Structure prediction request, 380 residues.
Amino acid sequence: MPDYDVLVVGGGPVGAAAGLALAGSGLSVGLVEARAPQAALADPRPIALSHGSRLILERLGVWQRLQPATPIERIHISQRGAFGRAQLDAAEAGLPALGYVVDYGQLASVLVAALEARDDNHLIRAAVSAVEGGRDAARARFDTAPGEARARLLVLAEGGALGTTRVRARDYHQSVVTTRVTSSKPHRQVAYERFTPQGPLALLPMGERLALVWTTTPVHARQLCELPDAGFLGQLQSAFGTRLGAFSQVGTRSSFPLALKVAGRMMEPRLVALGNAAQTLHPVAGQGLNLGLRDAWELAETVHGCDREGIGNETHLRAYASRRRVDRGGGVRFTDSLVQLFSNDIAPLKLARGLGLAVLGAAPPVKDFVVRRMTFGTRG
Prediction:
């Protein structure tokens, strides 16, 4: 007999959400996480959760623990050095907010803490050294005790698990710089997405400050991280402009490279990938984690719909893949197309982008379509 009905590898937000979504099902569920309980809090990345993700987190019983999350009431979209702009408004869309900005580390910590507080979930503090599928159960091997565990379904929710699948990859030759900045004008719950030839520059309301997600070339990203504060703020001012007044303070900066990675068919049975293990997306439009949370929620829905003996078998995993195909494929194409269309300085594309933004800004049906896709995914 397997040790678990479902064993989740990876205690980040997506893996922990999958574990919580399976809680109370009467199934034996385990979560494997190597990091110490407080390690997640050290991750400084800002995360924009969609309203759809808020609904998932409310169902999991953790949303209130994330407060205060900063709501995004409007999104201002523009391109540097060219005409065309658009604004998306939560009130116009009939939503309380278009999104909510939180710390990645806080989100991960809250979800794992909620799992630890339950009696029907088993948390294993170990690093996974290998996984393998099998006809009746998959197996995870650990670098420490208990050594290994078997499960009817092994859920891979760590980005490094992409090595167990066939992967389509594209290096964007970009890196992203993240930090917190202060502006002389209040943000008024407005998020800014400004497209530049090197990549998108996003400023998200976060408390009284702004979370910066600045995509640029790898060389420039390294330079931005090495500059003194005054030099960094000067470059940010030049790239963004004065809509928020003068930038006066900047926090710790971090940077990482960007690539598209999409897992295809699993090479072994009784394994399924979620979140970054299934698709690693560009941060433009903030779709990656929101797509991963929908992966977790819908996987749990398919598990709840199975009899215990059917969990993780080929019929179950085909049904899950079919259920996620449209949303997953749409999310990948949406973000990848934005990168290809906006991260350049080609004159005809500049004109086309400007016209597209003008249409988006002036046509309510187009706005509604875009907002629903950003909020609830391709199936929204």
Summary: The two ends are 39 Å apart (CA to CA). The longest strand covers residues 165-183.
